[in-house]
Amino acid sequence: MHDTDWDRIRIFLEAMRAGSLRGASEKLGVNHATINRAISRLEETYGTRLFDRSAGGLSLTQPGEALVEHAEEMEAQAFQIARKISGLDSHPSGVVRVSISPSLAHRFFAPILAGFSEAFPDIDVRLIATNQRSNLARMEADVSIRVADRVSDDVVGRRAVKFVQAVYAAPEYVQRVGPLTLGDGTGAHWINFRSDPKWIKASPFPNAKPRHLIPEITMQIEAAAEGVGMVLVPTFIGDADPRIVRVPDIPIQPGYSIWLLLHDDLRHSARVRAFVDFTAQYISERKRMFTR
Fold first, then answer.
1. How far is CA 134 from CA 57, 139, 173, 262, in A?
2. What CATH number did the domain enclosing 193 receive?
3. 230 or 203: which leads in pLDDT
4. Is the dihedral of CA 219, 224, 226, 228 positive or negative?
5. Where is the signal peptide (predicted)?
6. Are residues 169 and 222 located together in one domain of the fold?
7. In sequence order, what are the residues at sequence separation of 6 or more whose Cβ sits closer than 8 angstroms to the Cβ of residue 143?
8. Confidence (pLDDT) at 181
């Protein structure tokens, strides 16, 4: 293969996944003409069409489908090589890319970053705030800070803490529906990620109705602060917002774990190890904040 073939293969894969030249262009950060030219030259190399092009986008031809499996094998090998090389650093310097949900980042990431920057001035942290799980095998991030019950076997996981949750609402909302919520929640409303009958029935207020489903904790709290309804959120997030209060006489609820995740190939990387160890220590020293 020529040296440039891998670049063209990579573009072919992104075009296949995006389903359009425009989508691949946006993903790779190159212009539309570059994508089109790379695919055309790849088709010239193999002497066959890899995509059928239409106004609706790109669709794989039979040769294109045959190429996908081999191209993905090349991609996996390329990522493995990159991870292995990246994990060989012995001095804590360079870049660490950290994937974290916006709600976690908003609540406690800034003080971690401040302390870490002082302790390791040669490491540059690049934050990826997203609710999507970053693919560590594809090097979308070096470290992922996630909330989960358990983690998959293909990553190295370190449980930082298991937190608890509580029911919160605006003080005015509690006063307005207080007599009702002392019972089963009739007349009250949940602000939640989704309408889940099983979750609601097992909650402290099984007759409260789900309302205004909102997919992100920070946005849920904003709605609760305006008196829209009740939220069940981690206490380390809810207690930090003076606009909402815990609903009285309701015990704390079981929560989940905060995990620090990395790929096995990076477990000995000095810069990655420094960030994971520092973050785990920071959370451990403040464990009470997460468990009361």
1. 26, 8, 37, 10
2. 3.40.190.10
3. 230
4. positive
5. none
6. yes
7. 96, 97, 98, 99, 260, 261, 262, 272, 275, 276
8. 54
Using 50, 70 and 90 to split pLDDT, how confident is the model at 220?
very high
Q: How far is CA 202 from the centre of its chain?
A: 27
pLDDT, one tens digit per residue, over 116-129 is 999 999 999 999 99
The span from the CA of 80 to the CA of 263, in Å, is 10
Per-position DSSP letters for 49-94, written without gaps between them: --EEEETTEEEE-HHHHHHHHHHHHHHHHHHHHHHHHHTT--SS-E
Which residue type, as a one-letter code, is found at position 184?
D
Same domain, 216 and 248: yes
Tell me how far apart the alpha carbons of residues 177 and 191 are, in angstroms, rounded to a whole number. Answer: 15
Same domain for 155 and 264, yes or no, is yes
Nearest to 25 by CA among 17, 69, 77: 17
> Which domain covers residue 180, as residue numbers?
163-255
Number of domains comprising the chain: 3
Q: How far is CA 181 from CA 113, 171, 248, 253, 275, in A?
A: 40, 13, 9, 16, 44
Torsion over CA: 225, 193, 213, 197 (sign):
negative
- Looking at the fold, whether 117 and 142 belong to one and the same domain comes out as yes
Contacts of 67 (CB under 8 A, 6+ apart): 12, 46, 50
To which H or E segment does residue 146 belong?
Answer: strand 143-148
143 and 167 inside one domain:
no
How many other CB atoms sit within 10 Å of the CB of residue 104? 19
Q: Is 292 helix (H, G, I), strand (E, B) or coil?
A: coil
Tell me the average pLDDT across 1-16: 77
Nearest to 224 by CA among 249, 248, 245, 253: 245
